[in-house]
Amino acid sequence: MIVSLEPSGPAAQAGLKGPAVRRGRTGVFDFVQVDNSTADIIVGIDNQRVATVDDLLSYLETKKPGQVVTLNVLRQGQHEVARIPVKLTETKAQP
Contact at 8 Å (CB) between 42 and 80? Predict the structure, then answer.
């Protein structure tokens, strides 16, 4: 399941859907509500089954920025797998 999506990243640009995130404030407290039911579930990449995040990441490590992979995803309310091409980009280091 996609748990986070960079709004301007390649996955979002390709049309993948992450969880619905709602931020708000009650009095002096900020809150975040995350609804994972709206997120796509990745079940394969380039017609290879993925069962874990490690499966997905191991496959992606063999690819280079600029290459296109096709993700097989289950989308909320649909019974057929959607095939979504995603052009890979360079990962920015996180501090």
Answer: no
